[in-house]
Structures are given as C-alpha cells and as structure tokens.
Amino acid sequence: MDDPRPRPNYLRWGISSLLVLGVLAFVAWRAFGWFKDFAVFRTFNFALDSITDATGASPYLVKGVLILVMTPFFLALREIGKLWPFTAAGLMPKKVAWGIAIVYVAGFFLVMHVASRDQYFHHNSRTVEATKFYAITPEGIRFFDTSGVDPKYGIPLRPVTPELIANVKRRELGLAPKLIVYEDPSEIVFFDTLTGEPKVWYLRNDSGQIELFSSGGFHPAYSAGLKPVTKEVVAEVGRQAKERSGKERQDKEASIAAARRSAADAYVGPAVDSKDKGKTAAVLVLANDASGVNLEESIQQALLARRVEPIRGFFKPAFIQSGKAAALFDGDWGVAQDLLLSERVGVVVIGRTASTVTANDQFEGLKTASVQLDIKCLQLEPQRSCGARSISVKGAGYGDVAAVESALANAKAQMEEAVMAFGL
C-alpha cells in the first residue's frame, strides 16, 4: 500500500540552508569588520583625548602625529583581527603583528607617564579637577598620581590646588613672597599694565594693618594664605599709609621735643605748676659779685606786688656759664626757643649790672660806688618785649661792699617803679 504523505524535498532544504548560512556568514563578516573599525576609532580617540588632556597640545597637531605614528599599530591590529581562512596572504606574520601591538601599548603608557609628570589638572575638564595628590612631609611636599596615603609617612593625601602649585613653582624659581617695605604706596606697581592682573599680594594682620608681599604664598608669621590685591585693598593701603605717616611725624616731633626738653633741663628748671602760667616770672640778674642776688630779691618782691609769681632758682649755673643768659639779654630769642622756655614759665625778667668803686679824696677810707643796672622784661608767649629800663645810681660807704650796697639801696625805688611799668 502506498504512503500518502509527501516526500521531503531535500534539494530545496539544502539550498535554503546554504543561503541562510551564507547570509549569516556575510553579516558576521561585516559585523567583524565594523567591530574592527569601531575598535580603531575608539583607540585613536582614546589616545587623542589622553595626550591632549595631559599636555594641553593642539588637537590638530596631536591628530596629525597619531596618524603617522599609529599606522603600523593599526595595520598590526588588522592582521591580528583576520579570520583563519584569510590569514595566509597577510602583510606580516601574526606573531610580528602581536609584537608590534604589545610594543605600541607599552610605549603609549610610558609616553603618558612622561607627559603627565608636570601635569596637575585635567586640561579637558570644564572645572578645576586635580590629577595629582600631595602630602606635606619632613622632606617637603611629595606628589602622587593617585589618592590614598603617603606610603613612607602615612600622611593622608589631599588633591592639589592651583594656589599650592603656583606657590611651589614660585619657590622653585626663587620667587618666595617677600615683605614689601614702602613709605609711599604710589611707588608700588600693584597691577600688570598689560593684563591688569595683580602683581602684589597682601594679608591683614591682627592689628588691622595690611602687609604687602611680592608674590603669593603664606605669611611667614601667621601661616595664612596671601591674597592678590584688589582696587579696594589698594585704596585702603593708601589710607593706612597716610595715617602711619601722620603718626610717625607726630612721634618724631614728640621725640625731638622730648630730647630738647631733656637737653634744656641742664640749663633751666621744670615747668611751673600754675593755673595761669602767664602770671609767672623767672628772674635773673647778671653780676660779677653778690649784688646780683640782692637785686633779684628786690625784683621778686616788686613782682609779688603786681600779683606775678616769681620762680626762684629757675635758672641753673650752666645757663650763665654757657653764655646763654648773656645771649638772651642781648636779644637772642633763639635761646628761649631752644630751651622751650615758653612751656615752663610765662615771663623772664633779666638784668645786668656794671659797678665801679672809687676812693673819696676828702674822707679817708670812704668809697663811692657807681652802679649801672639794665633790666628787661621778656614775655615768652607770644614772644615780645614787655618793657626795659636803665638805672644809674651811686652810693657811698666805708669799703667796696658797703659802697655797692648803698648804691643798690638807692636803686630799689627806681627798680620797683620799673617793674610796675612793665606790661605784664
């Protein structure tokens, strides 16, 4: 009995299977080609991005160099990627191709190591991103390519910062920050005249004063980071300099005045303690004998009658011995200025006597004394003459001293009259 089922068409199935296998082989072959092209493309771009990121070189320059340098590498990859049926007619043996690929890969990483030694930040990054880490050790600053801890000292590593790298390079170039000493800030060039960038750094110390430095870095005493100056900081530096200049001038003047007062102490007494210094008077009479003391006492009594307080013992012997007393009497106001007399007393009454003694021809032993007294009143603030008088008197007595004393007694009334006439 015949089998009713249709017989299979083996020929048709065979042809269909061959067609499917052929299509799959073609797709696989094209896919393998596309994969090789993709691998070449990615390898080229990886090398391009890595080198430009590490060096900051022009991408066009790097592309041109890579095309020339990497052609043998890509040809080697082509040979390595060939399927078994197509390896017979290759450009090079497969072992040679593998050797070229290995040398190129190893060489690439060695080149990247050399190129990135002085690279601290990613060039292709849109933000500041560190590529190195550092630790401050007893040996100085040590840099590493990866984060972690210093393997020698166990110090945790920190990412580098632009300020740190700039300061390290300045130190290597001998540009460590130096304090700028100045009197006039206008002598300092604060900003670059071409770029406008700051050329001076500063720190505000504990007293609020701004200290200026020649470059960035850290303050040697406060260990605080220095900052670049701004227009506002420069303006404040000018104000502080003006204030310091005024204070220094005042301090200098005070120091000079103190030295002058100290020098004046050798010649005159201290300032009088009186509410109304203008009503105080220092009295001095220049004489070759003791008559000067008596005259000074008479003048002081006359001043008291005018409610002017006489200052006794104000002038010291050095004032007379140095010739300053004679110079003041002769009208040299510089003596009063040098000794700052206006700070110590209100008025100076100064006199000078000249006396001669002659024998009396009629009476044996009787002497006649002629005394010339010139007396001046000097107001010290403001500087002006408040009066002057010349008195000539005679007196007689047995002996030179007695004759002079008699003449002085006769001069007392005229002297009191002179003092009363002074413009005190």
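That was protein one. Protein two is written in the same sequence-then-structure order:
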Amino acid sequence: MAPETPAPAALAPPIGTDKAAADPPASRRRAATAGPVFLAFILAAVLGVLGSVAIVLTYMAIARGVSSWSTTQRGFDSGPTIILLSALPMELALAGMAFLMVRRSKRGPVAELGLDRHRLAMKEWPILIIGSGVPFALGAALASIAPSTVDPDTYVELWRNISPASAVLWVVVIGAMPGLAEEIFFRGFMQRRLARAWSPVAAIIVSSLMFAFLHLDPATMALALVLGLWLGFVAWRTGSTWPGIAIHATINSSWNAGQIWFRQTEPDPSPVYMALGALGVISLLCFAWSVRFLLRRPAGASPSAEPVARSGAPVTGLGVSSV
C-alpha cells in the first residue's frame, strides 16, 4: 500500500509572514483615511477663497464705476449683501466637496454624511438646542479675550443700520448657510471618516480644530473650537448630522437677531441682563440634561461603508457674526 501524500498547505501563509504582516498597520490605515480628508479640506478652502475673492473684486469694480473708492470700501465693511455673497463660495465648496468625496459610497451620500436619520425624541430637540447656549457662552467668553483681526465696529454698524427686510434675510441666511454646509463637511464628512481609523475623541478634536482654522480670525476661532467640540460630541452620540445643523443654525441666527434688536432699540440694560441671567440658568439645566441623556444612550455607529485601505447676549469687543 502506497504511503499517503500530505495535502498541500494551500491556505498556509508563506514562510516568514504572519497575520500582522497581512493586515496594514494602524498608522498606515490612519494615513490612508486622513490623507483624502485633509486634501478635501484644503481643496474646498482654496476654492472657497478664490470664489470669495472673485465676488469681492467684482463688487468693487461695479461700485467703483458708480461711486468713489471710499464709498466702495464703506459698502464692503457694512453691507450685509456683499458679506453674505462673499461667504457663499466657501459654504458651497464645503458642502459640494463633502458630497463629491462620498458620491461612490454603497450606502449613498445621504447616509454616508449622517443625513438619513436621527436618534432624538421630539422633546429632546429643544432641550439640546437650548442647552447648547452653555458651550456658546464659554466660547464667546474665550473669544472676548482673544486677539481679533476684525474691527468690532464692522458688525456693530451692520446690526445698527440694517433695514428690517435685510435683517430678516441676514438672520435666516447667516444661520442656514453655515449651519448646513459646515456641519455636513466637518461633522458629516470629516469627523465620520476620521472615526473609521481613529478614536471618536481624536476624530472630534481634529475636525473641531479644522473647523476653527477655517474661521481665520483668532477670536472667532476660539468660539468655533469650543462649539466644534460640542457639536462633534453631539454628532457622535446621536449618530446624525441633523442635531448639529439645528444647533449651529439656531446659534448663528439667534445671536444676530439679538444683536440687531439690542443695537437698534437700545433698551434699558437692567431687564436685559436679568432676562439673560434667567436664560443662562435654563440653558445650564438643559445642558446638564443633554449631556446626561447623550451619555446614557449608545454612541452613534461609525459609518460602516467600504473598508479603508483593505479592499445670545451682546459682548463688548466681540466682532463675531457667525461660526
């Protein structure tokens, strides 16, 4: 009887290899994830800046044809229309780049960016939004002591002199435009992508730093960093980008609406500060409740798409209109 021939070890790994060698190291996975994300941020920022410069130069050329240079300069400083128009290219670039980067996702762009669902009960929405006044107040306090390249009188003049019709447009657009575009990019795209290879905390911190960096002015960056950390935490625990959109838009719109009312009516400060104090207490209670219910629920799952590398109140001197 012939001896049995051993079966070939077809599935055995080659000599000198092991499982660790078959899988890419963690550092390589992190680099493969972060590289395209940061490249998308740079491209969006460049496109946004170029678009803004083009709009401003066009506006100046048109204005120079009908008035003097000094009038053109004053129009740029105080005109809400040119400020909104000059911000539009950046917001479009951010949102467009986010959708472009996830266009081939098997889950679809909407789900990939966290726009398909939310995990909040109806009663939790107002509590979360009101509670977000606490991180906003902390960020505003930090911004008020940070250096700024923006003259505070720029926005004070705008708030004081804006017409009612323009004020409605300003309040709506200054809330909706950054609220949608910036949250879709930084929390919907950047944070969720980084969380595939990094820890949730690292993804939140890095995306918040990039969010702050986009605002350029040091005072606004300080406010944006604090708010970005909170918005990142909310997006992580809810698994959705929608709560951050609602918070971001509400903060921007409320801040500007309050400033317009305060600058144009010049009310007695005492009742205003009493009302702000009461609102602060309510906001603090809502914030504590929000943190509690967010921590008690399972964190929102990171996107499980294709594997990577394997297959309020006026603040003196704070010239900030939005984050």
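The radius of gyration is 24 Å. Keep this in mind for the problem set.
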